[in-house]
Amino acid sequence: MRDERWRRRRELRLRTPADARRFVRQIGFCPFWPTAGVEMPSLLHAIAGNARPLSAGTDDPAIGRSWNWKDDSLDKRWWYYGKLLRRRATLVSLDLLPAFYALSENYGAPSDYLVEYQEGRLSAEAKAIYEALLEYGPLDAVRLRKESRLAADAAKARFDRALAELQGDLKVMPVGVAEAGAWRYAFVYELVDRWLPEVPARARRFSTREARQMILRVYLENMIAADRGAVVGALGWRPADVDRALGGMLETGEVVEVELPSDDRRLLALKRNAGRLMRRGLVHAGAARDGRSARRRTIRGEPA
Question: In this structure, are residues 29 and 97 in contact, taking their beta carbons and an 8 Å threshold?
Fold first, then answer.
């Protein structure tokens, strides 16, 4: 089921940039390239049509296509691209981006970043980068280092960390590529709320719980089934935040717990996916949570 949804079959692989755009819309969010230790769909695997390791080499045509398609898409507002999940390159559909934004430190006021800085939640380097973009508009990375006074060789690592910090909190994103620097290749960066001004307003419609549940719903749809540890590892949320988001979904039956036949490890699944897995004999219904009853709960899912 995952290979089909994640396009990890050769006949389902992405062949064009338009295919990639539809894939991200369908999948909601995914790493650009696979992340070690995290099982999720990725754009690279969907282009390759299999789960090949990233170490296959830079001559791999799927790697080249993923890189070129990503670069060509940056100025088209197809999706959010930036170092979001685990500070790694991530693609998020514009439909789902407001939910992620609702979980950020941003509240839609121009002075938000100053409050974060004063409270020690934003580094001095990130503040300098943000203020350079605020003053000058979109800047390529070379000029951005200069305007934020981080152009010295000794400051490069601090610049890179601060840029990842800003992307991780959805303050800054790449919006193009410029012929700049020694390699004649540099990302152009802009403020998220200036490049995608509708996102903050849409994000304000969601409570924190609603935003987490929206993201979790998409994650479980993509994963088919996953344990709590996988959710924490993939999304970077605290276990308590995962449990709070799951609480209402388990109570309503939208999410259920299932077990693998080989062990008693509990997996989380959307009810419709749990039914499909059970009919295929891949999982069975979880036992009662308090352990006082061996009775199995019946889960009715949609037709496979």
Answer: no
Selection from 44, 68, 67 nearest residue 56 by Cα: 44
**DSSP H/E element including 157:** helix 156-168
Q: What is the DSSP string of 231-256?
A: HHHHH---HHHHHHHHHHHHHHTSEE
The CA distance from 16 to 263, in Å, is 41
User: What is the pLDDT averaged over residues 198-217?
Assistant: 96
Contact (CB, 8 A) for 303 and 278: no
d(CA 164, CA 160): 6
Q: What would the mean pLDDT of 182-195 be, rounded to a whole number?
A: 94
Output Rg (C-alpha) for the chain, integer angstroms. Answer: 21
| Model confidence at 294: pLDDT above 50 | no
Q: Is the dihedral of CA 222, 223, 226, 230 positive or negative?
A: negative
